[in-house]
């Protein structure tokens, strides 16, 4: 499709052609609602460009439940690898066959009078009665300013740029951050025999399997994935939480940083600064490890209580006991002496909605909404973490959110058409 000099009009414009935008297109097509999906690159671009070679899902395949496209393979309790994920998503794209404008970056969205929006793109302008922002919340890689002071002969990557141990220069690799990406990338390097220094944070972790089942299966049985954000103990604060680190690699297993340390990985506390060639760390490695293990055990304890209350016959459980303890806190590390030749920053992303010229954001640049519906009539968000439930930003919950927004859009479309019909009738009768 192309955008002409004279703006074309659509009932709905969806910004973003990932799994969120295409999921909404699926439901809008069912309702015969005119719409256009605008994608800056190509559909599912991030899955091809921002995942390392050994990447696999951390949630079991049965949770891949995009609308009209459930997982249909032979291993529902396995974990798809990168190539399999891309195949699954390519199939979904073909299944939906959305009205798509790709290779066009949305540069500005502004109100259009008292009703509707102007959507300015690198390919021209369109107008819309309603706009859905489905571009996710992971836009700008976070790299601290101290990175500017590292020696130019040290390779620096963000986690989205990392591909494999073989692609890294010889020498020690410093991985900064131990959330899902940091822990898994550190493991990838460690398994390849690379010397790794890992700067930890307060990321939590969870077991892969417990008492005979995947922990995800237990939590699904317990109704955790159906809990809406307003019922979560942290309320909207849960959106700021770091994801638990675990892996689906090689059939799935725990990630235990203490085990890695016992095998030679060098663990430090939070990276806080750089003086010359010397890195500085908080003395909180013990605290970070204890926090992660505490969350791990508390999740298992909640499963124990559920099993006991429901009278389920399951294998006995056990409490995790540390397999390694740090012998004191190390506050500094000289880059040259440690042989560090590369750094991988695994400290996440921040949202960038600067192109959305509408008053719906808080002081941290995050959109205010209730289940994706904003205070700006006709403007919605989709695909954000904990938009409504844990699965909102994942393959498991996006269908529910997309269906809900399709219903809101349909209701507003119907109300607008009814108003237009009444205005036309008044004109004819005047």
TrEMBL record:
Keywords: Oxidoreductase
Gene Ontology MF annotations: flavin adenine dinucleotide binding; monooxygenase activity
Gene3D superfamilies xref list: FAD/NAD(P)-binding domain
InterPro entries: Auxin_biosynth/cation_transpt, CHP04046_FMN-dependent, FAD/NAD-bd_sf
Name of the protein in question: FAD dependent oxidoreductase
């Amino acid at each position: 499709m192309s955008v002409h000099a004279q703006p074309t009009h659509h009932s709905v414009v969806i910004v973003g052609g990932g799994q969120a935008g295409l999921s909404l297109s699926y439901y809008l097509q069912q309702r015969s609602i005119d719409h256009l999906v605008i994608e800056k690159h190509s559909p599912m671009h991030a899955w091809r460009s921002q995942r390392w070679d050994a990447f696999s899902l951390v949630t079991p395949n049965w949770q891949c439940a995009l609308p009209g496209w459930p997982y249909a393979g032979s291993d529902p309790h396995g974990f798809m690898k990168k190539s399999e994920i891309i195949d699954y998503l390519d199939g979904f794209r073909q299944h939906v066959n959305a009205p798509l404008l790709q290779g066009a970056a949305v540069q500005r969205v502004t109100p259009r009078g008292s009703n509707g929006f102007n959507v300015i793109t690198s390919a021209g302008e369109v107008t819309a009665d309603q706009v859905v922002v489905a571009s996710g919340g992971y836009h700008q890689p976070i790299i601290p300013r101290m990175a500017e002071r590292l020696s130019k002969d040290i390779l620096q990557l963000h986690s989205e740029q990392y591909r494999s141990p073989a692609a890294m220069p010889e020498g020690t690799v410093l991985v900064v951050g131990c959330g899902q990406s940091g822990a898994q990338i550190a493991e990838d390097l460690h398994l390849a025999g690379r010397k790794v220094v890992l700067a930890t944070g307060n990321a939590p972790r969870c077991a892969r399997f417990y008492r005979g089942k995947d922990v995800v299966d237990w939590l699904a049985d317990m109704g955790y994935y159906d809990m809406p954000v307003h019922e979560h103990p942290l309320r909207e604060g849960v959106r700021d939480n770091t994801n638990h680190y675990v892996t689906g690699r090689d059939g799935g297993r725990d990630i235990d940083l203490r085990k890695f340390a016992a095998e030679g990985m060098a663990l430090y506390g939070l990276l806080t600064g750089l003086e010359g060639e010397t890195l500085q760390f908080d003395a909180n490695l013990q605290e970070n490890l204890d926090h992660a293990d505490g969350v791990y055990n508390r999740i298992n304890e909640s499963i124990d209580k559920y099993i006991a209350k429901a009278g389920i016959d399951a294998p006995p459980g056990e409490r995790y006991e540390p397999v390694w303890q740090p012998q004191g806190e190390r506050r500094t590390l000289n880059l040259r002496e440690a042989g560090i030749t590369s750094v991988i920053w695994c400290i996440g992303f921040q949202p960038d909605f600067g192109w959305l010229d509408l008053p719906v954001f808080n002081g941290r640049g995050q959109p205010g909404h209730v289940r994706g519906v904003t205070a700006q009539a006709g403007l919605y968000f989709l695909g954000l973490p904990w938009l409504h439930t844990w699965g909102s930003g994942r393959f498991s919950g996006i269908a529910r959110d997309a269906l809900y927004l399709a219903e809101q859009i349909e209701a507003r479309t119907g109300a607008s058409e009814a108003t237009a019909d009444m205005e036309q009738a008044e004109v004819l009768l005047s």
